[in-house]
Structure formats: structure tokens, C-alpha cells
Amino acid sequence: MIPNHVMKELSTKNDAKIVLLVMDGVGGLPIDGKTELETANTPNLDNLAAQSSCGLTNPISPGITPGSGPAHLSLFGYDPLGYEIGRGVLEALGLGIDLGDNDLAARANFASMDAQGRITDRRAGRIPTEMNLEICQLLRQNITKIEDVEVKIQSGMEHRFVVVFTGEGLSGPLSESDPQQVGLEPLEIKPLVEGAKKAARIVNQFVQQVKSVLQDKQPANMCLMRGLAKSPNIPSMHELFKLTPAAIATYPMYNGLAKLVGMEILSTGSELSDQVETMRKNWDNNDFFFVHVKKTDSYGEDGNFAAKVKKIEETDAILPDILALNPDVVVVTSDHSTPAVLKNHSWHPNPFMIHSKYCLNDQALAFNEHQCMRGCLGTIPAYEAIPLMLANAFKLKKFGA
Amino acid sequence: MIPNHVMKELSTKNDAKIVLLVMDGVGGLPIDGKTELETANTPNLDNLAAQSSCGLTNPISPGITPGSGPAHLSLFGYDPLGYEIGRGVLEALGLGIDLGDNDLAARANFASMDAQGRITDRRAGRIPTEMNLEICQLLRQNITKIEDVEVKIQSGMEHRFVVVFTGEGLSGPLSESDPQQVGLEPLEIKPLVEGAKKAARIVNQFVQQVKSVLQDKQPANMCLMRGLAKSPNIPSMHELFKLTPAAIATYPMYNGLAKLVGMEILSTGSELSDQVETMRKNWDNNDFFFVHVKKTDSYGEDGNFAAKVKKIEETDAILPDILALNPDVVVVTSDHSTPAVLKNHSWHPNPFMIHSKYCLNDQALAFNEHQCMRGCLGTIPAYEAIPLMLANAFKLKKFGA
Q: Which residues of chain A have pLDDT under 70?
């Protein structure tokens, strides 16, 4: 891919507007010969595809199924192998927690431990979320500071919670405390480099304090710490591409990912129409809008083919309102595929289309997997989408003389 | 891409002849639904396409619009991000100046300066070329050597000229003296690395001498120095690919670029038929012929769709004469696209076809953007064209056992 310093040199600011509409997990696999996109009735998406350059994108590389973090990083123009977003960071983002330079985040599970200190259930029997809320409240009352490090605790679903340690000199990488099987004691957290010693010491003390506070709270009488990480230091989309980007997403994690690359987060309602209205209101303030549709992925993960089809049709119905804003460049794609038949993210490349006044149309006459295969872009890495968007918006200078 | 040392190992010499016909900037965009290539009547190119493997090539990477330098480097089989051709070098090549290992080239502008030493016009009011010739002659009479460094000065068009400094120990990179806006004094040239100190000292002395010689020559009483660079050290096509290549181009810059990669420059007339005649005469001496058609790009830059179409048709008409030489491999493509509607180089990939006795034909039945999209090669980086040409000419050994 084009190195960051070259993109910095080539990118240039102008007033052109770019809309990146991400239908999360929209790529699918056939049931009765047709994928979710092929089953859906999508006259607006199909009409746009016929006037677009189409193709398929691989978020990472052929065969690699990505998580949401690297998949979005790639789509935002970053080398997804070059920046690691730790699991703890992603969980914190998902709970809407802002992470600063002094923050170390951990994904934690409540777990069950026997009298000998051996883990008997790594998920504490998946305690109800209400119990999680209660226990986290108890922990917050008892643990606020370890040495000079502040401790923040936030509940997730069932047995999951997030801990953020804030202080000077906290650094990873650290080993995890989860022994990965029952019958073993929790592992001591170890610094994996010299500079991570303080963080390891603090986290081990935290675990001991949790153990002490929860000693009579069976089945949740222990915690396991995983994915201890700091926010990756990612150059912003403004620094690299001279964009003033904004995110319009309904789920905290996607706003969190957008914030990692320096996007402004626009608060919006829960409906697609709210998201478009938010974009309309902010049209003059930003030149790049990342609009994230979550439910296509959720229904894919549920294996609910029909509901995913319906959500695609709802997105199709809102497309004319987006186009009515007269964006200079529109891209519609997904971050990764989530075929309902797999109930999971998959490695299949994403349908992709880019429309501008100066895109070359091709033989892809509808927006779906098989038509996009006929597109002129071929199958490209997702991180090449940003240079294409910038080019179509005349936001890139010529490379070399 | 395949590393240079592997290409060196794999390439092997034989008598097969390769013709690379570059229609500069031929890729375009539609007016009334048809691109320049689609509008042109090109029975010979279309007939060849039907018997070729077709595709599209990206000179650098999707979305990146290249200058002529990196675009040709890529087409000649080199990593266009790996070798930088400085602006001064390209300007010198464009004026037909040969650059050796001891030469540092600069692109210079005549400029206007007020009594306080501030630049009032960075282009000296775009003085007529006749005045430029006169002033350069005056400079040549007064400045021939600075310390042990020889100075050569050559006029370009209007306010532009090129200076070549020849001597031991001259090296870049250097900063530029152009302050980029009026009202400011010219900047001192600074060495950007330790080894560039001598070059900076010499160029600064040159600027002072120019100032002194031109003090009563308003509006051209100063010069601004830009793009100071040495010729990049590029391994030759002979060294990498064991080719004995020749260039048949009508514009100095393209001969200059060809010389950078070690091609022999064959002098030729200004017509396409002259170029083919030159190739015929030299058929036994070389095994790779780079034939460069300039006007397709020039008319594209002028926004003259009809003239570009006509030039394509003229090139089509000459194709049978090329094929009559019975080359083993023929490639027709462009270095970059220059759609007449954009009046500029663009990021759109190039139509590409390769014909040999052993190429696989495909569903591309004519030579244009939309048909080449249907080709079996897909959309590939332009630097992959040389391995394809070598393979079709049986000039590449098997990789590995």
C-alpha cells in the first residue's frame, strides 16, 4: 500500500464531500441460490451500482476473517496489520469509554474459584447482567486507586466487564491471567517487556483485591484479566488525508473505532433516517461521512437471513435521501461479510461500489456479490478504498513529475 | 512485486522480440457514453485484442494519479515507489540533457525581485522564450565554474530553465529557494543531509552570481531553484531482465526516461510511420522496442476529445506495419490515463493487451476500457507487465524446482 508519508504529501484539502456507507457484514452466501443482497429488492442500490465502479474488497487478505477493529481500520485507509487494537481497548470502546494516553484497558470476566484457588468456571456460570451490575458497584466502592493508579470498572453483559487503569508509566504488553481451562489457578500477569513491569504489578494487585472483595460472592468470586492494552497510536485521517471526517453510528464500538482515527462523533438517533438527518444537519461541517448500519451484521450473526434481507431493503430505501445531499463521492460496502448461513464474520470479500461524476461504470449492474465480481475494480484490499475515494473527490495531487 | 535479484536470476537471453507500444494517456472517460478508445474506429487494435490476454493496469496503486516519470518506470518493470526521479532530473531529460553520475540538476525559474530583495513575481511575468534564450546566453558567458564545479545552463519555455552542476561530491537532497509566495525573500538552499553541504554551498553561490549578473534585467532579475536532484541509480533493464532494449520516442523526456533504465535511444522522425521504420531498421539489433506515441496524451491534456480519437485511429492504422515485423510479443497500453474530459493525467487504470503465440485469449473483444475490464488479466499493477512480456517471449526460467 501507499506509505503514510506519501499519502500525507499527496492529499490536499478541498470542499468535495465523501460519503462512506458501511452496511456492516452485508456480504453473504446463498440460500436457494441467492445471497442476502441478491434476495433483497434494492432498486436504488442497483441503480447506483450501474453508474459506479464496482468490485470486491478484502479487509486484510484473501482467506482472513477480520474482527470489526481491523476491518474498519482497513476501510479507513490504514494497514490493518500495522496497528493492533487490543481486545481490552475494543471492549472499552464498545462500552463507550474514552481512552487517553495514560489509560490501560482490560477485558475482564467474572469467574468461579474453588477453596484451593482453582478456577471451576471461567465465566462464573454466565451470571445475569443484573448481578454483574451489582458486583461491579461493590468493586467500585472498594477499589478506586492502586498506588498512584486510578481504577475504573464498568459492567458489560453477563460475566463481562472492563477495567481501565489510569496513571503514569503504564504500558503493555502483558500476559493474561486466564488459564484457558478449568481446574487450574489463575495465572500471574507478567510484563512481556521491561517497560511493562509497573502495569503488571498494578494489575496483579487489582486481581488480589477483587479476590478479597468477592470472597463470599460465589459463583462470581474471582476475575480473569485478558487483552490488557493501551490505545494504539494511529495518525488521524486529518493528518494523513487532510479530511475532516465524521462518524454517524448507532453502536458505541464503531464510534470508538472512528475516534481512534480522529473522526468527529456525531450523536444521532437509532434509526437510519436519524443518521441521514444527522448527516444533513452537519453537511457543511465535514467533508467525509462514515455512516454505519449495524443490524445487517447482527442479523447475519443471528443466522436470520430474512431479517438481514429486510434490513438491506430498509437501507436501500434510505439511499435516495443520501444521494439528495449531492455528495461528490459515494461508496457503499461492508467492513467484512457475515453470511447468515455461517452466523459469523467470514473471509468472503465485500461487495464494493464507488460513484462519482468521474468513475468509470462497468458491467456490474446491481449491488451484490456476483455482480460486483464483474466490476472494473477487481478484487482489491479494502485499504485501497480511501485513495480511490480521495482521487474521485480530486483530493489527491499527482505522484511524481 | 518480484524482487530485483529474483528477476536477475530468472531472466534469460534469447532472440525473441518484444514490442511495447505505449499510447501515452490513451485511457479516457466517456462523452455521450463512449470513451476516446470506444469512439475511435480501431479495427486492427480490436482484432489484436480478440487474440490477446487483456486487462487493466494501475501504474502505482488504485486512486493514485502518476506523473510521466513513475508511470513509465512502472511500465518498464520497476517499483515506482522505490526510485525517485527529481523534478530537476525530469526537466533536464525533457530538454534532452544527458545526466552523468557527477551531475546535479535543478529546475529553475526566472523571477522578479524588488529593491529590498523580496520576490514580486515568481515567474518573472512569464517572459517570452526569446528573452529567456537571451538571458541564459548572458548567464553562460558569466558563469561557467563555481569552485571546481562546472555549470551548464539551458533555456526552457518562458521563465523556465535548467541548470546542471557537474563535479565531485555533489549530492542531494537539498531544500529549494522558492519561497512559494511573493513578498518574501528567496530562501537559502540548505543541505538536508550532511553529505549535501557542498552542493548547497555551490548552488547558493550560483544564485548570488545570477543576482549580480541580472541586476538590471527586470523583470527577470533573479532566479528560484527547485527540484535539485541527481539521476536516480536505477539498475538497467539489461542487468535485471537481460534485454537489449531500444526506445523510439519523439519527445526528449521519454527518451530521457528510457535512458535512465539503460535503453538505447534510436533517433527517429516525428511521424508514427518514421517510428515504425526506425524499428524495422533496428530489428536485428535489439530484442525490446519501446515505441512511444505522445499526442494521445497531449490532446487529452488539451481536452481535445476528437483529436485524441483521431490520433488513436492513426495509431491503429500503423499497427499492421508493426505486426508485419512478426514480433514474438506485442503489448499495447498507456502509461497513465489522460481523459479529455479531465484535461489532465488521472488515476483510472490503463487498458492493456498482450499478444503472443501462447497468450490465452479472453472475453475482451476490442481494445478499450470496458472490454479490457472483461480480460483475463484483471486489474494488475503496471510493473507486472514486464514479467508477462518476458514470459510470453520465453525469456524467464522456472522459479524454484
A: none
ipTM of this complex:
0.88
Task: Pick A401's closest partner by Cβ from B64, B69, B349.
Answer: B69
For chain B, how big is the Rg over CA atoms in Å?
23
Run of H or E including A332: strand A329-333
Place of cell 480490436: B46
What are the cell numbers at B129?
522564450
Sequence-ordered list of residues with C-beta below 8 angstroms from that of B357, at least 6 positions apart, any chain: B328
Phi-psi region of B67 (alpha: psi -120 to 50; beta: other; left: phi over 0): beta
pLDDT at B390 over 90: yes
Check: pTM over 0.80? Answer yes or no: yes
Determine phi and psi for B305, rounding to 5 degrees: -55, -50
Residues of B with CB under 8 A from a CB of A: 29-30, 35, 56, 60-71, 80-81, 84-85, 87, 90, 227, 339, 341-342, 345-349, 369-370, 373-374, 378-379
B60 vs A377, A380, A399: nearest CB: A399
Selection from A389, A397, A398 nearest residue A16 by Cα: A389
Mutate to test the interface with A, among B29, B65, B257 (most CBs of A within 10 A): B65
CA distances for B194 relative to A136, B166, B173, B199, B207, angstroms: 60, 19, 10, 10, 21
What number is the average pLDDT over the span B270-299?
A: 97
CA–CA gap between residue A383 and residue A64 (Å, rounded): 14
User: What is the rounded distance in angstroms from the CA atom of residue B337 to the CA atom of residue B205?
Assistant: 42
Q: How confident is the model at residue B196 (pLDDT cuts 50, 70, 90)?
A: very high
